[in-house]
Design a protein that fits this description.
The protein contains 9 helices and 5 strands. By secondary structure, it is of the alpha/beta class. Strands 2-3-1-4-5 form a 5-stranded parallel beta sheet, sandwiched between helices. It is globular, with a radius of gyration of 16 Å. This is Thymidylate kinase. It comes from Amycolatopsis thermophila. GO terms for molecular function: dTMP kinase activity.
Length: 215
């Protein structure tokens, strides 16, 4: 059985870059790795509804924090067979975003903390009701919100399919989300967390050693 490792962080934190770097580093260690990014845009009707909602294509859908949270959760529920298959056949399943993203952004939108009602609801829906696998480790790629916003802005200007959405354009939301992520990590929500500095560079070798030789 493989290990389920999740990379979390703000929009623009560098999660995709870290996913690619860790995949290479794990391969160099002789480990087999499969990766998956959420939301699964272009592969899941629920994810596509999320993207369309974030660009205001479905009226006031985005205004419903629980409605959007449920779409994110349904996207992951449909991916459970793929995740479990990956765990059966690989040493590491590496996810770019997972359940904690739903918890952090929803709680931030409602101006709640990590010990609030929305985070409890996310766990009840995604883990208890939908049966999503619990992560073995979650990595918080921590960057100042201003740095993440600058990166997201640059990405939007250079990648045709990465226009900033309603969440990425809300600087106050991003700052509140960063605070909730810090709280989730501090309380070891769902699993142990590793907090890494995404602003100054990540020690991939040390991070990989901690993933494949936990404890």
């Amino acid at each position: 059985m493989g290990r389920l490792v999740v990379i979390e962080g703000l929009d623009g934190a560098g999660k995709r870059t870290l996913t690619e770097a860790l995949t290479k580093a794990l391969h160099d260690e002789g480990r087999t790795v499969t990766t998956l990014a959420f939301p699964r845009y272009g592969r899941s009707v629920h994810a596509d509804l999320v993207r369309e909602g974030l660009h205001r294509r479905h009226g006031d859908l985005t205004d419903s924090v629980y409605g959007m949270g449920l779409l994110y959760a349904l996207d992951r529920r449909d991916a459970v067979p793929e995740i479990r298959a990956g765990l059966d056949t690989h040493d590491v399943v590496l996810l770019d975003r997972y359940v904690a993203s739903n918890a952090a952004y929803g709680a931030a939108r409602l101006e709640q903390r990590a010990d609030g009602e929305f985070v409890r609801w996310v766990r009840e829906i995604e883990i208890d009701r939908f049966g999503l696998p619990v992560p073995d480790t979650q990595i918080l790629l921590k960057v100042p919100p201003a740095v993440a916003a600058e990166r997201a802005e640059k990405r939007a200007g250079t990648e045709a399919d990465r226009a900033k959405d309603a969440y990425e354009s809300d600087d106050d939301l991003q700052a509140r989300c960063a605070a909730v992520y810090d709280e989730l990590a501090a309380m070891s929500w769902l699993s142990a967390w590793r907090v890494v500095d995404g602003a100054t560079g990540v020690d991939h070798t040390g991070l990989v050693a901690g993933l494949v030789h936990p404890g």
